[in-house]
Amino acid sequence: MIDLNCMGERCPLPIIHLAQLIRDTPNFAKPCTITLLSDDTATWPDLQAWSRMTGYEVHKIDELTFEILAK
What we know:
Elements: E1 2-5, H1 13-24, E2 32-37, H2 43-54, E3 57-60, E4 65-70
Protein backbone atom coordinates (compact mmCIF):
# COMPACT_ATOMS: atom_id res chain seq x y z
CA MET A 1 0.00 0.00 0.00
CA ILE A 2 1.18 3.50 -0.87
CA ASP A 3 -0.02 6.71 0.81
CA LEU A 4 -0.22 9.98 -1.11
CA ASN A 5 -0.95 13.10 0.95
CA CYS A 6 -2.37 15.93 -1.17
CA MET A 7 -3.98 17.88 1.66
CA GLY A 8 -4.10 21.60 0.88
CA GLU A 9 -3.51 21.09 -2.84
CA ARG A 10 -6.13 22.21 -5.32
CA CYS A 11 -7.38 20.78 -8.57
CA PRO A 12 -5.78 19.41 -10.67
CA LEU A 13 -2.72 18.77 -8.46
CA PRO A 14 -4.01 15.65 -6.60
CA ILE A 15 -4.64 13.84 -9.90
CA ILE A 16 -1.35 15.05 -11.38
CA HIS A 17 0.55 13.80 -8.31
CA LEU A 18 -1.26 10.47 -8.47
CA ALA A 19 -0.39 9.98 -12.14
CA GLN A 20 3.23 11.00 -11.49
CA LEU A 21 3.49 8.57 -8.57
CA ILE A 22 2.30 5.69 -10.74
CA ARG A 23 4.53 6.72 -13.65
CA ASP A 24 7.68 7.43 -11.61
CA THR A 25 7.61 4.57 -9.10
CA PRO A 26 10.17 2.02 -10.25
CA ASN A 27 8.78 -1.49 -10.45
CA PHE A 28 5.27 -0.30 -9.62
CA ALA A 29 3.79 -3.57 -8.40
CA LYS A 30 0.32 -4.58 -9.41
CA PRO A 31 -1.98 -5.23 -7.72
CA CYS A 32 -1.42 -2.24 -5.46
CA THR A 33 -3.59 0.04 -3.38
CA ILE A 34 -2.87 3.76 -3.19
CA THR A 35 -4.54 5.78 -0.45
CA LEU A 36 -4.98 9.39 -1.52
CA LEU A 37 -5.72 12.07 1.07
CA SER A 38 -7.19 15.28 -0.30
CA ASP A 39 -9.38 18.06 1.05
CA ASP A 40 -10.16 19.50 -2.39
CA THR A 41 -13.85 19.02 -3.21
CA ALA A 42 -12.98 18.44 -6.89
CA THR A 43 -10.90 15.35 -6.10
CA TRP A 44 -13.73 12.80 -6.17
CA PRO A 45 -15.22 13.88 -9.52
CA ASP A 46 -11.69 14.20 -10.93
CA LEU A 47 -10.81 10.69 -9.72
CA GLN A 48 -13.95 9.26 -11.31
CA ALA A 49 -13.09 10.85 -14.67
CA TRP A 50 -9.45 9.74 -14.37
CA SER A 51 -10.64 6.21 -13.57
CA ARG A 52 -12.76 6.07 -16.74
CA MET A 53 -9.75 7.17 -18.80
CA THR A 54 -7.13 4.91 -17.18
CA GLY A 55 -9.07 1.84 -16.03
CA TYR A 56 -7.92 2.15 -12.42
CA GLU A 57 -10.60 1.35 -9.84
CA VAL A 58 -11.35 4.16 -7.36
CA HIS A 59 -13.33 4.21 -4.11
CA LYS A 60 -14.34 7.06 -1.83
CA ILE A 61 -13.67 6.00 1.77
CA ASP A 62 -14.76 9.29 3.35
CA GLU A 63 -14.69 13.00 2.47
CA LEU A 64 -10.88 13.15 2.60
CA THR A 65 -9.77 9.59 1.81
CA PHE A 66 -9.81 7.78 -1.51
CA GLU A 67 -8.49 4.38 -2.57
CA ILE A 68 -7.06 3.68 -5.99
CA LEU A 69 -6.66 0.02 -6.98
CA ALA A 70 -4.06 -0.72 -9.59
CA LYS A 71 -4.70 -4.17 -11.03
